[in-house]
Design goal:
The structure holds two protein chains of two kinds. Chain A is mainly alpha-helical. Chain A has 20 helices and four strands. Chain B is globular, with a radius of gyration of 24 Å. Classes of the chains: A mainly alpha, B alpha/beta.
Chain lengths: 570, 451
């Protein structure tokens, strides 16, 4: 039952709150969104003012970009994931493609995107705006799509049968079965991807492509301007601002969404603990949403009927024919031919422009960056695992620190980079080592996060058994803790190394004022190629990094994950 | 009155085996019809293809050959004359009771007001008025299944399909719902013209159905049918009721007998030995389960016990009991005649044995009575290091079972073999390894030439 807002009054305080909230939101979006349509020429770059009073406006611009990207990611996810899951043929192309897209470093092809979008939106800031949004989109969409696809693939068989037998149309099936079933996974995935998106937002708002400096008003470009002006106070304000924004978005958007999504929990039994959100409680207490819903219902019904009629249930209980099998073979052959043709074209382009030696050189640079990633993952694992396990074994500590760790993992590490750079310069730390620290700033939290989750999943009775048998210290780690958290550790390491590869592009070259520190590595190579607009080298660098990431996934992480699943799960 | 609603003609269902290794036959030459005004039960053990047959008749999966006609029309898509009640309810947890019931009507394009009225009627009929706005997770299992029934009733199908509708419920709830469905049917205003019930519960079949069709396994086929010529409602205390139940139990526990008319007890035919030891399915039970059942039977004191009462006394489901009995019979621990079970001398010895001597008896019976274990042990002995890759054996099973069942057969064989200390299974390396002293101390009773 809905709780009435204010006794006999049709509207109560919650309604006032909801109305004011909606109006404020609309006003802010109108004001902030207007800025995106300002005309610009490549020569007159929008000016970023370091006065901290401008920060709320910049933060709003950045946040708007994040949400526009989220909307696009969600639409992309629903369409791409649906076809990948429901069409066997599409699946065979779309899923490997997604796998590759996921391994390509987003920041590596940012330059490509920016050039393309500037060409597309000649004379308006919208081009840059869209390029930044696209960068955020690419950091979110692949994860979300995989989550949605996997949910669709695991819709229980009996529910699918019921949907078929009760003749649900394509549309009804999508809205009544597929999307609700996938909602919780999708929401969690979107929330985590959104957190990771701040990093790419900050990196994409101020970027040098083809010897042009491109700047979009936002917190990211504010930080870049502060670094150029060597203004530590401004940097401090920027960090406070982004922290406040992350907390606000969490409280006013993600918490309510998670609380709302709980209704799509599939377990048919009541849950022990439902996620709570005070904002969601206010919205639920208000009467206006109910009224709006009542007015909307007949409209929704008509739209639903139209869409249902357009997607009349097709029943695929045909018998398999020889013709169908031949079609399959033709389709497979076509896919293989296209893949081979594309690889030949790409290889020819690189070979004719830069030559073999360059490939070997870039491979060597890749090894250098890989060494950094390996050291980072190993070191972060050694440092954070004991801490994570200690937190995970203490339920009160875990519930208190969970939001903190979540906050840290979504805090864009590149906001801290200038401080670290300054420290490197003052203390004389070589950037070849310092880059590892910079990469770790963002990536390490995944390892901590998963160590906590892994420790929490170890049953209490097993820990009591260890106490009982006096199994302590190293033996306890070897017999109980490491096997218990192994699968989680692998997951954490996969995510951390993926993040570290991406971060290398902004970590290996850092500057403070006019001083620039440059490390030897693939990240530097890509950044320099991007700045100089050297297309063959951009393509070579990005491809090499993708090859490294894919190779590591295939030869190390997947087998390790498989082993963890087989050996250490109950 | 006697017109046919749905009719199957020579239906076969074959599934391709993985790796292109031919086909697995799930259903072989099934012909039957559902008549108007009857409750028909499909009775069979798991693996007899009864659920597959139901889904073919519902148009959810196509037959490999043969025809299904519904109302005289060939079924090529989801059968519009049918609504199904699912074993696990298949409710959408994010919709309320009423919305779940409305779903099928909505899909048929029925307008909102009309839809709500019909849905409310169906909810009333199953006794859920007052719960229209509740979500499934707030309901007990029995109430969830009532929602499943209401959803089916709402679209007023010609035939109501019920796929093991009570087997996910506890005993009392199941009984309650069963008799309410029976009352509704007997009252004469049931929302469908016929019911097709799939079950492995013999008493349930006799209680609800006018006609029971018995299905056999490997491949799934019709073994025959038994008419329940009692007046409705079927009275469990009626002597004739007990007779029919006993008759069905005898048929179900003797997979190789042909079905004669009720009353005449079936003669056990000599079971033709299959070509490969890997073709004979193992019942999926644990050695500890067999031992536990034998101990309870031995404690009972009397020489024989009625199988139908055993299920109640041991408080296990009929399907589990049948699997246990089949294992006990195939290991010559027990014999079943005329619906009564008797322990053999070996069976009594096994029931009274200590852990170690029990393992010895079990090992001896495995090697003597189940050719599969003899074959596995010989294979392992033939190897120098006494190990063999699991895939070798899985391939052999794959020829006779679909992949999932082959895996289960393998798991059950490993379970029995480990208990008997015949061989060990190394899951990391994926090999079977001969137990060090597996066969030295066991006399080899079976001469391969005589098999």
């Amino acid at each position: 039952m809905r709780r009435g807002g204010g006794g006999s009054l049709p509207f109560g305080l919650p309604d006032v709150a909801v109305t004011l909230g909606v109006l404020t939101l609309l006003a802010v979006i109108a004001k902030v969104g207007a800025g995106a349509f300002v005309p610009f020429t490549a020569k007159i770059v929008p000016h970023v003012d370091l006065d901290p009073r401008n920060l709320p406006y910049y933060a709003a611009r950045s946040t708007l970009r994040m949400f526009v990207a989220l909307v696009w990611s969600t639409l992309f996810t629903l369409v791409y994931g649906y076809f990948a899951a429901r069409s066997k043929r599409a699946e065979r192309v779309l899923i490997p493609l997604l796998d590759i897209l996921q391994s390509v470093p987003v920041l590596g092809y940012l330059s490509v995107i920016i050039t393309a979008f500037i060409a597309l939106f000649r004379g308006s800031l919208l081009g840059l705006e869209f390029a930044a949004i696209f960068a955020i989109f690419t950091s979110q969409a692949w994860n979300m799509t995989f989550s949605f696809y996997q949910s669709l693939k695991s819709v229980p068989y009996e529910l699918q049968e019921a949907a078929t037998l009760y003749r649900l149309s394509g549309w009804q099936r999508f809205v009544a079965l597929d999307v609700p079933f996938a909602t919780i996974g999708l929401v969690w995935n979107a929330m985590i991807s959104f957190g990771g998106g701040w990093f790419f937002l900050a990196a994409s708002e101020a970027i040098t492509v083809l010897n042009h400096n491109y700047t979009l008003p936002g917190v990211g470009s504010y930080v870049a301007a502060a670094v150029a002006a060597q203004d530590i106070r401004a940097l401090g304000w920027a960090i406070v601002t982004i922290a406040v924004v992350i907390v606000l978005v969490d409280q006013f958007f993600w918490r309510p969404v998670v609380a709302w999504a709980d209704r799509f929990r599939f377990e048919q039994n009541a849950a022990a603990e439902a996620p709570r959100s005070w904002v969601f409680d206010v919205i639920r207490a208000a009467n206006i949403p109910v009224l709006v819903g009542r007015v909307w219902a007949p409209v929704a019904e008509s739209i639903g009927r139209l869409l249902a009629a357009a997607t009349e249930a097709r029943f695929a209980t045909r018998r398999q024919t020889a013709e169908g099998a031949r079609g399959e073979r033709l389709f497979n052959a076509a896919v293989i031919v296209v893949v081979i043709a594309l690889s030949v074209v790409a290889l020819r382009f690189i070979l004719t422009t830069v030559g073999f030696e360059e490939i070997f050189k870039v491979f060597g640079l890749g090894l250098a960056t890989m060494a950094r990633v390996v050291v980072l993952v190993a070191f972060a694992t050694i440092v954070w695992t004991p801490i994570g396990v200690a937190i995970g074994f203490n339920p009160r500590l875990a519930s208190a620190l969970q939001p903190v760790v979540q906050f840290l993992s979504s805090f864009p590490a590149n906001f801290i980079f200038p401080f670290a750079t300054l420290a490197f310069i003052r203390l004389g730390v070589p950037i070849n080592l310092g880059a590892i620290l910079l990469m770790a700033l963002g990536a390490q939290w995944y390892i901590l996060f998963n160590a906590i989750a892994g420790a929490q999943s170890i049953p209490t009775d097993l820990r009591e058994m260890c106490d009982d048998c006096d199994l302590r210290g190293w033996r306890r780690w070897r017999r109980l803790i490491v096997p218990g958290i192994f699968a989680s550790l692998v997951t954490g390491a996969i995510t951390a190394s993926g993040g570290a590869w991406n971060a290398s592009i902004v970590s290996e070259v850092v500057s403070w004022g006019s001083t620039t520190l440059t490390a030897t590595g693939l990240g530097t190579y890509i950044t320099e190629a991007t700045t100089g607009g050297d297309w063959p080298r951009i393509i070579l660098g990005v491809s090499m990094m993708s090859v490294f990431v894919v190779a590591a996934n295939r030869t190390i992480w997947r087998p390790l994950y498989g082993y963890a699943q087989k050996r250490f799960t109950q | 009155m006697n017109d046919e609603l749905i009719r199957c003609e020579h239906v076969y269902k074959r599934f391709p085996l993985p790796g292109g290794k031919g086909e697995f036959t799930a259903l072989s030459d099934v012909s039957l019809s559902v008549r108007s005004g009857e409750v028909l039960a499909l009775l069979g053990r798991s693996g007899s293809g009864k659920s597959t047959l139901l889904r073919i008749m519902a148009g959810l999966i196509p037959p490999s050959s043969g025809d299904v006609l519904s109302g005289g029309e060939p079924v090529t898509s989801a059968n519009p004359d049918v609504a199904m009640v699912f074993q696990t309810f298949a409710l959408l947890p994010w919709l309320t009771v009423l919305e779940n019931v409305e779903l099928g009507l909505e899909a048929r394009g029925i307008r909102r007001t009309n839809r709500v009225r019909r849905a409310l009627n169906a909810v009333d009929l199953v006794g859920l008025d007052g719960f229209e706005g509740a979500y499934p997770r707030e309901l007990s299992g029995g109430m969830k299944q009532r929602v499943g029934c209401a959803r089916a009733f709402a679209i007023e199908p010609k035939v109501l399909f019920m796929d093991e509708p009570f087997s996910a419920l506890d005993v009392l709830t199941a009984e309650n719902l069963r008799s309410e469905i029976d009352q509704l049917w007997n009252a004469g205003n049931f929302p469908s013209k016929s019911i097709l019930l799939v079950t492995h519960n013999i008493e349930e079949a006799v209680f609800l159905a006018d006609r029971v069709i018995i299905m056999g396994s490997n491949p799934g086929h019709l073994r025959g049918e038994v008419e329940v010529e009692l007046s409705r409602p079927h009275n469990r205390l009626d002597a004739r009721f007990a007779e029919i139940v006993d008759h069905l139990y005898t048929i179900m526990t003797n997979p190789d007998v042909t079905i004669a008319a009720t009353g005449a007890m079936p003669a056990v035919l000599g079971a033709a030995p299959h070509a490969s030891p890997f073709a004979q399915p193992l019942p999926h039970v644990r050695p500890g389960g067999i031992s536990g059942m034998l101990q309870l039977l031995a404690e009972h004191g009397e020489q024989t016990e009625d199988v139908a009462h055993l299920s109640d006394r041991l408080s296990i489901t009929a399907d589990d009991l049948l699997a246990l009995l089949e294992a006990a019979v195939s290991l010559k621990f027990a014999e079943i005649t005329d619906g009564d079970v008797t322990l053999t001398t070996t069976g009594r010895a096994f029931a009274a044995s200590s852990i170690q001597s029990g393992k010895e008896i079990f090992r001896k019976q495995l090697l003597e009575c189940v050719r599969l274990f003899d074959s596995i042990v010989r294979t392992l002995e033939g190897k120098k290091d006494g190990t063999m890759g699991v895939d070798f054996f899985l391939d052999l099973w794959d020829e006779y079972f679909p992949a999932a069942e082959a895996q289960r057969q393998f798991e059950t064989a490993v379970d029995w073999g480990r208990f008997a200390e015949l061989f060990e299974y190394d899951s990391l390396e994926g090999v079977l390894r001969l137990h060090e002293s597996a066969t030295d101390e066991t006399p080899r009773a079976l001469d391969p030439a005589s098999a």
